Amino acid sequence: MACGAAFGPTADKALLAAVMPALARFEQEPDQLDRPSTRIQQLLRQLTQSVLDAGWQPADLVHVVKRESTLRASRLIAAFVADHSRQFQAPERAPQAWLGQLVDLGIVSGDRSSIIGGRGDLLAAWARAERLHPDDALLGAVQMLAQVRQLPRMPIVVTPPSKWGATNKGTEPAPRATDHIDAKALKLIRALLAKAEATTFEAEADAFTAKAQEMMTRHSIDAAVLASANAGTRHAAGVESRRVHIDNPYAEEKAGFLAAIADVNGVRSIWVPYAGLCTALGFPVDLQLTDLLFTSLLVQATRASAAATAADRRLSTPSFRRAFLVAFADRIAERLEAARSHTQAEAAQEYGESLLPVLASREAAVEAAYTEAFPNATTMRRRSFNAAGWHAGRAAADAADIGASGAIAAG
Predict the structure, then answer these.
(1) Are 299 and 187 in the same domain?
(2) How far apart are CA 47 and CA 207, in angstroms?
(3) Measuring CA to CA, how many Å separate 365 from each of 134, 309, 327?
(4) How far apart are CA 378 and CA 271, in angstroms?
(5) Among 7, 50, 185, 224, which residue carries the largest CB count within 10 Å?
(6) Which of 20-24, 193-197, 287-291 has the weakest average pLDDT?
(7) Residue 168 lies in a domain
(8) Phi and psi (nearest 5°) for 176?
(9) Residues paired with 272 in a beta bridge
(10) pLDDT tens-place string over residues 312-359
(11) Which residue has the higher pLDDT, 309 or 162?
(12) Is residue 395 helix, strand or coil?
């Protein structure tokens, strides 16, 4: 798995030491414009605008503040994102992908027509909502300022606010039929994954997951053939990117898990440690399927890890859990690859010799997009792992033969 350069946005202690005495003096001034809370809010507004123009998206910014600080702090930065959205008229001007994040964050209404919050004295409103003393609220804002000011630039994958036009109406192409999973297929895949998450029997979970992978592979192949027929060799332009936020603990191992699942499904994923996220590149259907499978398998891996340590609490250590997750991902990827190969072989019999060039073209398109977006990516070095955790993880993923597609009826 490739990864970006290690860089962590941490609180700038030097800034805190320099700023806090000055803020204490300014707080006594009668002029409201000289109050430290006013000045801090001005700086946070400027920084929010700056980072959102430097490749960070709304969900990325809220995620990294929560990850490196607290959930409480993430609610404050969300207020500044709302303020920014109001300033830049996001409902009328932002790209739909950007608006979708604002809806998920509760900043824009579900119909994407109006902005919620982001008015008035943001710091005072946050302090009241969090029941914080003004001094504590001010300190929290300065700490967040120190964190946000250290954020580096990110690759721009969605048009930033400074480049938005006067309106977002009609600015994006209509989605193609091959960009989305068929509703019936999506329902079946989700049902299989839900069953895999719900069962306590590893054999059943593996069988459900394998069947879901087979359905995902077949749907991806059908979409690729249809796109090729409709667009000839131009279908390579359909490669897109999606950011997947990774939570602690064991974020690096989870990122490796995502990369393994992505590879099976024709997607490339790169770990960006300073942002706590992965950028996945691939065709829309494959990106959506990878996201679905990763979310489900993380649930299954967490449950399997808990079961492995339940009998012996001495195994419940970070080193064991880290090794367990890596080994579980490694073995699951092997089994998913077996399920994918089985389905590809069946599809090749139906489509004939025309299938291989189509799949090769898509693979080349994804690889080219990845290389262009991340020319300096490096490969993560393998670390030594807790032996017990490694063997337990392999055993949990290897408990059943998931290659038999007939285990679960398609309906």
Answers:
(1) yes
(2) 49
(3) 54, 43, 30
(4) 10
(5) 224
(6) 20-24
(7) no
(8) -85, 160
(9) 277
(10) 777 778 888 888 888 888 888 998 999 999 999 999 999 998 899 999
(11) 162
(12) helix
